[in-house]
Structure prediction request, 449 residues.
Amino acid sequence: MANPVSRLLRPGRGGLFWKLFLSLWLAMLLSFVVGVFYLHLAGYRDAMDNLDSVRTGVLLSTAEGLLKRSGTDAAVATIADWNADPAAPPVALLTDDGRRLVGSPAALTGYSRSVQADDGRRFTLVTALDSVWTLKPQPSILIPLVSGGLVALLFSSVLAWYLSRPLRTLSWALHAVSRGDFTTRVRHRMGGRRDEIAALGSDFDRMADRLQQLVEGRQRLLHDISHELRSPLTRMQAAIGLLRQNPGKTAAMVERIDREADRLDAMVGELLTLARLEVGSEVISRERVDLIELLAAIVDDAAFEAEACGRGVRLTADGPFVCTVAAEVLCRAFENIIRNAVKFTAEGTVVEVTAATGQGGLRVSVVDHGPGVPEDMLDKIFEPFLRLDATAPATAGFGLGLAIARRAVESHGGMVMATSAPQGGLAIEIGLPQDLLADAPTRAPLMQD
Prediction:
């Protein structure tokens, strides 16, 4: 399974990578477009103003020349023709004492130029200030900068909210789990998003589910262990009390105490085996063995014991499967499963053990003809101390055999699952991977008796 953190950063279709990339790219693109549009518009206005200023400059120079060479009437006629054009900047001609000879009043507050005519009189040519480009300030660069900043701020705010909200939810959930609230779930709080953060939320929910199962399993295991240990201890105390009351029954009571002590020792041994398989804290040597031959030996022993109670065990195998495994551990797993099937199969029936090899590895099937297991309990039968028959005698076992079998097979990379047999009864499937056929290190993290 991919690491959730690496998946958070990995590009993927519709993923967070592309959302970040496209958001930042779009923000920069919009800022660029706004800036270019503004500069283009300002440049267009400047070009138009510059053209007007050139035309106005030509007119002023022409009027000045006419005043100096041709007199006032020629200059007045030329300016009047100029002002007749609505698109032309307005121009006015004033006498030395301020009297307007020709031109628009709008030009009276504009740019002025003093001219001396050929007869010695002085006149003033006036045009509008905003029609002369050289007198205008350059466009401010603040407008595109502010526009780009506002666009970036908008996208950054939306992006920050989009990312921080689910991350705050995850942070809250992690703190809740750290306080021991394993019922905390976050995926439903993230809505319909389907990016890497949503996947991280789903991974968190699966983690919380697993932690809740482990904690509840540990509490249940502690309860079951205390109950299982209390029963033989209670019988030992009762035997000691009877021995004190009636010393004449010493031999019988000592035998009873010895039997209960053996039972306690066997139970503690099973618990240690299960614990070591769970944590893999110790090592045991592996060896090259043929698992088909190992199965045949176990089936022979089980068939001999089953014959005494009117039952049978039969093995069907299609070839050898020589691999590098912890043979002692797998032998115990196969033995626990087959003996469990013999225990529950109906009298006069045969437990069918089938072993098939192929490219997928080794597949072993153990099918009995007993009462079977309810569908909702098929996976729970591998939990420690589980007994479906509450009336089973104390000598029927501790309820640890199938739990040990599953942990032993899983420690080799395999799997164990239970299903209902088509003809009634229980079918347990065991799968071991093909890579066990390769040479493996002589020591591996397993259990040591």
About this structure: The chain has a mean pLDDT of 76. The two ends are 33 Å apart (CA to CA).
